[in-house]
Queue: 4 jobs
Job 1
Amino acid sequence: MSAPAHKKAKISSGGRLAATTTTQARELFPMSAWQDYRGHDDTSDEETDDYVESGDVDYDDGPEVFLLYEGGRSQRTSELNEGLLTIGEEAFEYCAVLSRVNIPSTVTNLGSCAFFGCTNLTEVMLNEGLQIIGGNAFSRCQSLRSVNVPLTVKELGAQAFCSCTNLTEVLLNGGPQTIKEMTFELCTSLRSVSLPSTTIALDKQTFCECTNLASVKLNDGLQTIGDWAFESCTELRSVTIPSSVIRLGYRAFSDCGNIAEALLNEGLQSIGRRAFQNCSALQSVTIPSTVTELSQSAFQDCSNLTEVIFLGGKRLLEQEFFARGLFSRECGLLDQGALNE
């Protein structure tokens, strides 16, 4: 770990690193990072010539100041100045009264759990220049209402915005190729999402249980929709799978009870097990000719599904459907019971 570019610090016993007041500072660390770097606990007066009073220690010679806040007792607004490069892991974790933060354009790395559990954080500004948003960075920020992910972000960590229950708007401007697992899971107020063409994969549970998600735009370029990606998005009424997508994962859209239209385009090769299970509003589906794998129970309990069109013709029908009894050769009718097996 590189040393912070400062000579003076104010450290409050039992606190967490939360803010810097100068442009000299380059990194924010949690308490554990100070111990790891110096090899001893900086809350003691070891190797200092300054006074110790009420648990505070001042290091000598320099105007640069780091502030350490005890969890839940930090100021409401945090001003982080230009020049800061890294906000370390857990830097503001559980700062319960923090309501607003502006991440400077010089910050390139936002560490894991940096703002985890900041339950009153309503506004965060992420500026161009940011490259990495770590896992759980804003998880359980239950008051956060919107987020604009800059174009410069190349990595969006797992569960980065998980359980942000008041998050209604997400702008993804391009950058990360993979939206990692559970990134927006349980964002129960999220109404719409549009994926940029730079996104090629959705990992598992990306938007799982976003129960108010009514509109999803999946752009060309996307290749994989992972397991449980949109499971239990109960307000979703239609979905169009781009021709670039080759795989729909296990339970990708299961329990989306209001999906009445699912447009699957040529290019799709694999429809995973239970991919559309319990999509009870779905009445018709067309299977592209490019599909070579239609897995078990893909449309299980789609109780209103009355029409399935196979663009692949006899090859797919004979190999996958007649053998499993999904159709009657004599009548050509869908056997709902066999479909559920």
Note: The first strand starts at residue 10 and ends at 12.
Job 2
Amino acid sequence: MQFRRSAICPVRFFTARAIATRAVTASVLMLVALLTGMSAGASPCHAADRSLTSRLFGERAPEGASAWDKAMTSSLRLVAARTGSTPLPGETAIAAGVEITLAPGWKTYWRNPGDSGIAPVFDFSRSRNVAAVEVAYPMPQRFELPGDISFGYEDRVVFPLSVTLADPSRPVTLTADVVYGACEELCIPVEASAELDLPARSGGATEFAGLIARWQAMVPADHEARVEAADIVTRDGQDWLHLRVSASAPLAAPVLIAEPMPGDDGGMGTLYLGPLDMTYEGDAAEFMLPAKPLRDAQGLAQTGGSFRVTLADLGPMPDGAMKPVWAQQFELHLPPRDGSGSH
């Protein structure tokens, strides 16, 4: 199994606003640690945002779910789609999920948190009879503030899991140790743990099967969308990433996230993509993102670049919230552009 757990809270701060709040975050964590009586040797991230009440007074969990691990502004648990650990005929893994709920006004983050925030880190190495766990990341919301662009989730998120068993004939204990961020004006790192036992049977569907399926539908997959054009445009000395896309049906509320990919071709660490401009009509949309070089790097027109682009269309859910109806991901590789004139 390939699992990773960070012993250090993986906080990423890039903007002046986020840097200013970092000292405030540290002060808050120290104060909460004192109030909760953090034991010697305990992780400050863990102690600062873990409610002792949830450890001392457990709640009875419904079938197919672990108990909630409750923090000050968020809670986490494991859920499963079925009541047993035996995969159905034709399947090689069982479906589960890590569910996080958040207090009003708070959010948590995607695998790429953007300019500031805390990407989640999942560790399943304490599980029993588990060969591998694959974590899927539903399409996030795009949050834009002056000087700060981040990607994440408000209110609730379920990260779908595909759990491959070591021995399908035996019961399973799925254990998740997770570091994630609960963020409002400042970000609080949270360490949470959840454990879910599944007996050795195929069982029936749990009350969480539909919930997991809904969030799985928001994970990028092939939905017959296409990138019709991708190029580099220069206007008044500013390089822009220009994209034109089409979908298989009329777009209601398209959203796009473009990530520079690592490498020596304008990759992560040398290029910043700013707030996007968007127009759309029918099944077509056009996006423009300013591409700003970092640390004296050359501009995008001179270097070219590789990008991971995630496109989605939003629609109203039963609770009235706008969520992705579908999402699709593309990889783009743009060569350097000859000349310096506008296109």
Note: The helical segments are 16-36, 44-48, 52-56, 209-216, 300-303.
Job 3
Amino acid sequence: MPIPQFPNYNREQFLSRIGNTPLIKHESLSRETGRNIFFKAEYTNPGQSIKDRAVMKLLDDVVASGAVSPGGTLVESTGGNSGVSLGLLARLYTPCFKVVLFVPDSLIQDKVELMESLGCTVVKCPAAAPPGHRDCFVEAARIYAEETPNCVFVDQMNNLKNRQAHYETTGPEIWSQLEGRVDGFVASAGTGGTFMGIASYLKDMTKGKAQCWFADKVGSGLCQFITSKGQSWECEAEPSFVDGIGKHNLTGQMSDALKIADGAVTITDTEAILMIYNLINEQDCWIGASGGLNLCAAKQLALTLPEGSNVVTTVADGADKYESKLFSRNWLVENGHWDSIPVELRKFATYDL
């Protein structure tokens, strides 16, 4: 897989290009539902993902705290995108920060190679390790940082600067772009910072009227937790190609999730893949895995609202980070998705050619 390239920005240029991303209308979904469905194209950030927003805020916080100085080591647990953003921002300091990233061993290799190409050290941890276990990628990162001199655990799961970044930037951008007419919002959760920051802002601006739903993947218990009002995390153990999202516990960003979220829905991998392929075909928007999942959930939320309502979601990254699965006929066949892809859309499955 060709490694995505990033422009050679200095720190000021990079930071000035974070945010103010396009809000794009999904034309066919909007026609089909009679509601207006939009997505924030976060892959247009300089680091090509929504994580630039939070990482900028988080890195400013840890540097200002004096916990680590340039030339030291930044440690994070990541599903890929925050690791890329950290790798890009770390090298804009003098001297550069070193970056050590802990990931679940189920993470798509495309993302691992991308982070390594930025000079990051990537440590794989057992994906099956439960939250809080020392082998869990989050806990392993924390332990490493505690035991290493001039090193800090950035902790995107619990540092509320993550959530604040979206309350202060992404939420207001959506509000402005739709001129204050927002009826629904959907997003998936990895750290929970994106959903909680944007949803909190939209709830405040609409006096609680905006409907806010979590989008969840198979194998995650978040949908069950929300719909059972906190009584259960129960879910079927099932793998998913949608990296970086899904929960079996609440992060520090999500302590008030039951107060903010009005609902949740689980989307299958096949549904997400079909959404991605259709959007590429119709609007030439090459969106990533969680973006396809989020748009499926946005459609479901939209259908519960009056005709003409405006529903928004986020597309965290682009399709290039998922090429070895998303556009691989072999992988699609092996994982039971190929037969669901319409013949006219199979032209995009070119990875194995």
Note: The chain is about 40% helix and 15% strand.
Job 4
Amino acid sequence: MNVNKILIIQTAFIGDLILTTPLIRAAKRGFPKAWLSVLTIPRTAELLEGNPSVDEVLVYDKRGRDKGSRAFLKMVRGLRSGTFDLALIPHRSLRSALLPFLAGIPRRIGFDRSAGSFLFTKTIPYRMDVHQIERNLDLISALGVKINDRLPEVYPDRHDQGVVRRFLSANGISPSDRIVAIAPGSVWPTKRWLPERFAELADRLIGEQGVKVLLIGGGSDIELCSSIAAMMRFGAVLTAGKMSLRQSAALLSRSSLLLCNDSAPMHLAVAVRTPVVAIFGPTSPSFGFAPYDSNSLVIQSDLECRPCGIHGGKRCPKGHFECMKRIHPEQVLKEIAKKL
């Protein structure tokens, strides 16, 4: 197959783009002479900086300056002028299917469960029993490309690493200190373990394991991280809202372990090969979004009512939130101690 220009469309969340990086790498290895562009959103674009498989990052601010039909058609015209001959569409929205169709890209491969599957020239079964990385790779393996590496990747540069070194030093953390990063946030409230239990566990990690604890997250997690720190007896270092995504990746690469919910930092840690202990409540690893490496694990409760949704929700539909309440700090500490 003669392929000169490839477009990969992933305009969903941070974790979704991270889980698309194995597909990006495989596409480039399968067609090494092809120009490879990735269409993504402003929030996630920096995750592709420094990626050796990516020749071009196209930014589509679909909820901001590019919102609306006029901007959509402008994006279509831009893609049409790019003369792509192959589009891979792991994002399952109608908009992501419409863009390459209207742009006239002759070969368009996406999932049969996509809202715009009827616009593809080739549909691939969306396998429910495998990880999302495996599903994404199905899009390129359908073209006969051999898959050798399945782990996600992010490339923090020297500047990112320098920012992290200076930040740690300024907060009294030396190169010999062991660090446990804790990411207590999530877009969905029911996916968050209880703040007081994060605080209790963090205190025990400091007091019993002698580690330094960092509370990490984005700007929306500042209030949550601050409240957890206020509940603690020992001091934790707050990084929420202070670092870019790639700087956060550099920080995680310096950490011995990440403790988190079912959220984007979990995938970011795997991308820099840091072990993860993830707490799953309303969601389930069976959906295909667990940490994708053998050094990580998921802690979850055995309840008939879970999982109750692929994304979680604003409140427990049963009103008891037992999926998170049944997970206690002692249980989590035992699993973390095995990995430190």
Note: The first strand starts at residue 5 and ends at 9.
